[in-house]
Amino acid sequence: MNPIKIGLLGLGTVGGGTLKVLQRNQEEIRRRAGRGIEVAMIAVRNLDRARAIVQEAGATVPVVNDPFAIVDSPEIDIVVELIGGYDLTRELVLRAIANGKHVVTANKALLAVHGNEIFKAAQDKGVMVAFEAAVAGGIPIIKALREGLTANRIEWIAGIINGTTNFILTEMRDKGLDFDTVLKEAQRLGYAEADPTFDIEGFDAAHKLTLMSAIAFGVPVQFERAYVEGITKLEAVDIRYAEELGYRIKLLGITRRAEAGIELRVHPTLVPAKRLIANVEGAMNAVVVNGDAVGPTLYYGKGAGAEPTASAVVADLVDVTRLHTADPEHRVPHLAFQPDALSDTPVLPIDEVRSSYYLRMRVADETGVLADITRILAEGGISIDAMLQKESREGEPQTDIIMLSHVTVEKRVNAAIAAIEALPTVLSKVTRIRMEELN
Amino acid sequence: MNPIKIGLLGLGTVGGGTLKVLQRNQEEIRRRAGRGIEVAMIAVRNLDRARAIVQEAGATVPVVNDPFAIVDSPEIDIVVELIGGYDLTRELVLRAIANGKHVVTANKALLAVHGNEIFKAAQDKGVMVAFEAAVAGGIPIIKALREGLTANRIEWIAGIINGTTNFILTEMRDKGLDFDTVLKEAQRLGYAEADPTFDIEGFDAAHKLTLMSAIAFGVPVQFERAYVEGITKLEAVDIRYAEELGYRIKLLGITRRAEAGIELRVHPTLVPAKRLIANVEGAMNAVVVNGDAVGPTLYYGKGAGAEPTASAVVADLVDVTRLHTADPEHRVPHLAFQPDALSDTPVLPIDEVRSSYYLRMRVADETGVLADITRILAEGGISIDAMLQKESREGEPQTDIIMLSHVTVEKRVNAAIAAIEALPTVLSKVTRIRMEELN
């Protein structure tokens, strides 16, 4: 059989990796797919640089400047979008679909924001939009969620899905350093970008979480409803106290099916140190999925980088190659559930989320302080699971109190914090970090 | 669309779990599959017990005594084989295939031994034989290997794929107890069977490893070539010494693409304590897959039990339901590679395997002993990575020496061990345990 022809939009890190993997493993891939996968055209901004990369990969592929030349080319079966960003890519992907081409993309931002429109267009046209590479790089988590766990009512997902922030948190803990210091180091080493906002403020993780949530619960993508909190305000002292209490702090994307709706939130989270996911270090990614039949399962691997991401892109290419002439009913629905069977379960506002909490406050070292605080918590219906009070230093009439709460509703904790901060004996703002047992 | 009709052969732990999950999550499953999955007939030995289970699950399904009634029924689309064992099941599965029915099975033993015959028959007849539940219970590892990592040249797989032995090893380590004591406890708790041979001697793990090896490397299943060593001879002292050196001992199934062939082996293995897989405790399973593009990935979850295994059975049912009327070319090949593209790379005999080694010996506490031993190792081309010599106890003229070697060929180690054991100052047999860095 003739090879299937693909067009690459973009030849950056992931594009270059994809070209290289397709070239190096072409025989292995053909033995699996039953058919070769040929890069027939590449569109880039910088033609000279691209030609050098193509040559280095040992390939011979025409390189063009205009991405629409690929999207409109009758020669191309699958468009691989690796440009990134929303505007141009939305136009390119929708035009590829309108032209009856399948699309493979690593663009989590595009799908988290415009996914409903794109999947609808693909559905109507009978083409596939595959996006394994958009979440957790080389880890086949989309496939696991969408196909591997179809027996389950998924209860929750919790994932380390941003390598930059996990690298920073690992360094902060290992070296006892503050966020700013470690961020600079991460930038120097290439683990963080010059403008790291997207990563460190949690948006990248929220894009990925949005996609997983839709697939897990059969709801539309709704990034605009996600609660997003990054790691920029995290202090070394809380990492240390958490450690003393048997916890690690990770930036987790969490989505859960609660009674009143779906939780969709990204924030720093205390996790028991003995959990496998608490031991995921450096730039690695891991996702825990809890299904009602299977229980907790975990998927771990490299969440970024040229070849790990290319691994996911090419896996999608093989899937699409296998099914591209098949009746659409034989294909897996884009969001795991049949398009006419999506649910309108709402995403809960963060106030309504249920979690445990780590609370740290600086208090005057006087009689009755603790009584006042615990009374406020009790009146708020918040029960305490563990407490740590540090001895005040010689001559210092202040001390840190750390409390771990049982599971409660966030708005109750916020109300209690306001009352606690109003106490004259409480000398600082209350630092509040969410905590999950994940069992 | 009418529901697809399945027939269950067997209603034991997994069969009961499958019935329950299909019943409880029928709506969720239909929303995903686009079609209901209906248990239309069940064959069992004990009719009364089965009827009680069916009633308890809230289902109404005819129960029969003769499994061939299902396999031959024109009403049944998919046969789910959950009986276990080789002989009857081989006949049933082949007859189901001959009748043009798809098969879903959890039977690792059957496929590891008769897989080539069964997959060939299915291929010729154009039906699917799905077996996600045969390896690592609810973890979708077959799907990850067969579809999620198709871009990769798989380099090696290492897995904790038997919960019973991992439970025993965890207890031996936590409590410092010997194998026999812990086995009895495991039997009492239901983690080990009355006749635990299959688990503790490594055969169950070897069946599962054989299937993963075939899928990873595109070779036929060849269980008869697997090297199988269980945990029955493992001593608490070695678990302790390994710990001191920074390692844990796990029963691993390892398959690796080496230069001269494929390694296929199950045995106790030292693994660095900091690896995620070293921290997989109790009856849990985990598999590490290393691909050339993606790097190391890990998959973790429950490897046995009614509902975790049912999770895999039902995922297969959804896959088969989706593709059962599709042209066979749209389906994933049984062993990941196209049947005409299998390779005849041989499985290496254990003597030719490359590994690191943990060696423990009891020696006389005399000058020159260590010099003799290290000379023998050096002459055998074996280099030492770490050594631990325990101080001899007061008045005891003997001591334990533990050595960790660098990677070498097994036959060299065996020759060196024979020479070491011949030394008059070496007072015991040399305990040899293989060791893998898994990075």
UniProtKB/TrEMBL annotation, chains A, B:
EC number: 1.1.1.3
InterPro entries: ACT-like_dom_sf, ACT_dom, Asp/hSer_DH_NAD-bd, HDH, HDH_cat, HDH_CS, NAD(P)-bd_dom_sf
Active site positions, chain numbering: 208
Binding of NADP(+), residues: 9-16
First-tier enzyme category under EC: oxidoreductase
Family: Belongs to the homoserine dehydrogenase family.
Residues in ACT domain copies: 358-435
Pathway: Amino-acid biosynthesis; L-threonine biosynthesis; L-threonine from L-aspartate: step 3/5; Amino-acid biosynthesis; L-methionine biosynthesis via de novo pathway; L-homoserine from L-aspartate: step 3/3
Superkingdom, taxonomy of origin: Bacteria
UniProt binding sites for L-homoserine: 193
GO molecular function ontology, one term from the record: homoserine dehydrogenase activity
Protein known as: Homoserine dehydrogenase
Record-linked PANTHER family: HOMOSERINE DEHYDROGENASE
Binding residues for NADPH: 108
Any matching Pfam family: ACT
Listed GO biological process terms: methionine biosynthetic process; threonine biosynthetic process
PROSITE patterns, A to Z: ACT, HOMOSER_DHGENASE
Keywords for this protein: Amino-acid biosynthesis, Methionine biosynthesis, NADP, Oxidoreductase, Threonine biosynthesis
